[in-house]
Amino acid sequence: MADTAAEQRVRAHPAIRLSGISKSFGAVRANRDIDLTVRKSSIHGIVGENGAGKSTLMSILYGFYQADSGTIEVDGKQVSIPHSQAAIDLGIGMVHQHFMLVHNFTVLENIMLGAEGAALLSGGMARARAELKRIEKDYQLEVDPDALTEDLPVGLQQRVEILKALYRGADILILDEPTGVLTPTEADHLFRILQRLREEGKTVILITHKLREIMAVTDTVSVMRQGQIVDTEPTAQTSVEAIAEKMVGRRVLLRVDKKPPRPGPVKLSVRDLTVVDSRKVPMVKNVSLDVRAGEIVGIAGVAGNGQSHLIETIAGIRRPTQGTVEMNGKTLDYDRLDPASLREEGMAHVPEDRHRMGLVLAFEENENAILGYHNSAAFGNGPFLSISAMREHARERIEQYDIRPPDCRLKTANFSGGNQQKIVLAREMERDPDVLLIGQPTRGVDVGAIEFIHRRIVEMRDAGKAILLVSVELDEIRALSDRILVMFDGKIVGERGAEATEGELGLLMAGVTDAESDRPAAPDLSMIDTTPGQAPAETQIPGERP
Ligand SMILES: Nc1ncnc2c1ncn2[C@@H]1O[C@H](COP(=O)(O)OP(=O)(O)OP(=O)(O)O)[C@@H](O)[C@H]1O
């Protein structure tokens, strides 16, 4: 059969060829002499430990940063990409981890934003709407163009970001950690969209820490380590274990190794807790739970079902409208206690949203490393803080938690996402609290660090701490928890032991409670099929048009 024009194009030039790309930030060599070729019409995964330089490399390709040296070819032609508009003009689109949509704009308005000039020249809103319809149809990416963006679930907001890039003519799409905020079902959808884009001749570059995603959806995988590409292989010829080992330079234990729990007395007791959000909508409804010393209680649930409000209320960040919380047998008076005094009482909290609550990004690492604990005598020097004590303390944590770069004077904003997470974890876990509340402990964290963080959490349990864990990663909940509570619509809808299956928990997460579960077999919510080349099962996400 004669080659189609598309097939000939695929063979003619790679979509992207980077040669000898280097980029330093002061002493940090974020990218070192990188050569990378991305084939057209392929899905190319990039993995690497935290701080390996993935985001920097993609930022160079998208014109956010300029490389110190090296060349970029797009479709066989050498180019310079001094700003993002140049990248867009070259057909490169980027879907960011934190969406850049205007919340009170409609889908159509968001998609046209920044491209209004072109739209007006070519016939205004009606033309834009028709063009959007065509793109939606071609790529099976339906979204209601008149829906307000803020009313859409995150999965659909991400879809709007993808549509926006395609509307601007993107042939090459970069996605940076796209599934961090998605439910398993939404992630499945995204992967089907990516496969569809590839079929239509688009090229996708996917940065992710989730190796199962790499195995399920990519054609080729490149591994980065300490600023370099250490390996590029067809995905079908490698394995999760091999990739993990190349990423961190040693074998990684991908399963949590833990002894049976030895629960002691109840340390944290929540009774009939109700919490409303800023619009007075109840987010947590009459929740009661206990956590004992020496056990990990995991709360599973699709994001937005009240688990974040629950943990933030226990931590003193939000006020309950009803109910009580006892710690060590003492009722906590939230009218009087703030997060700082709760810390003194023996509660530590690793917040989900490290940018909003865990860190002051403009502070140096050593300052963030004691944030909230800065009144401790250990850091005092009369009425002042002892700079040398702070730095010494920070250096120890940096070594213990392998925070990179090992520079306690670096501004926290300049650490990679995963290393910022390690700064918060190190701070909260080392306090030797009685009760530890942890939200999404390994979001954006590489496999080597996940292994370390999971081990630390289990060690704290074995040392008799009471741990309440919230995570949207079912794998994580199942691997760590001694008991699993499932939250749906603000309520605890079921409790299971550590042996609960993914399907069983998935049903509860979808709101099918024990009383109703005379239903047939549970759907398999395993995030993705790990057999390369096989499409994930058909699923529907809330708010999506049939
Ligand atoms: N603007 C900046 N100023 C100083 N250092 C920076 C800056 N941006 C990145 N770095 C440093 O460059 C290195 C690479 O960071 P980058 O964000 O590219 O890593 P990454 O592989 O994307 O990590 P993660 O998986 O944690 O997101 C890190 O050591 C980081 O601290």
Furnish the topology, listing elements before pairings.
Elements: H1 5-12, E1 16-25, E2 28-38, E3 43-48, H2 54-61, E4 69-74, E5 77-79, H3 84-89, E6 92-95, H4 107-112, H5 116-121, H6 124-139, H7 154-167, E7 172-176, H8 184-199, E8 203-207, H9 211-217, E9 220-225, E10 228-234, H10 240-248, E11 266-276, E12 282-292, E13 295-300, H11 307-314, E14 322-327, E15 330-331, H12 339-345, E16 347-350, H13 354-358, H14 365-368, E17 380-381, E18 384-385, H15 387-400, H16 417-429, E19 435-439, H17 447-462, E20 466-470, H18 474-480, E21 483-488, E22 491-497, H19 502-509
Parallel strand pairs: 3-8, 3-9, 6-7, 7-8, 13-20, 13-21, 16-19, 19-20
Antiparallel strand pairs: 1-2, 1-4, 4-5, 9-10, 11-12, 11-14, 14-15, 17-18, 21-22
Helix pairs in contact: 16-17
Bound molecules: adenosine-5'-triphosphate.
Subcellular location: Cell membrane
Main location: membrane
Keywords: ATP-binding, Cell membrane, Membrane, Nucleotide-binding, Repeat, Sugar transport, Translocase, Transport
Task: Estimate the global geometry from the Cα principal axes.
Answer: globular
Q: Structural class given helices, strands, pairing?
A: alpha/beta
The radius of gyration over CA amounts to 24 Å
CATH fold topology of the largest domain: Rossmann fold
Task: Tally the beta strands.
Answer: 22
Number of domains: 3
Main sheet attributes: strand count, strand direction, barrel closure: 6 strands, mixed
Q: Indicate the proportion of strand residues.
A: 15-25%
CATH class of the largest domain: Alpha Beta
Structure annotation, total helices: 19
Ligands in the structure? Answer: adenosine-5'-triphosphate
Mean pLDDT: 84
Distance between the termini: 37 Å
CATH superfamily of the largest domain: P-loop containing nucleotide triphosphate hydrolases
Q: Order of strands in the sheet with the most strands?
A: 6-7-8-3-9-10
The assigned CATH architecture of the largest domain is: 3-Layer(aba) Sandwich
**Segments where pLDDT lies below 50 for 5+ residues?**
517-546
Report the helical percentage.
25-40%
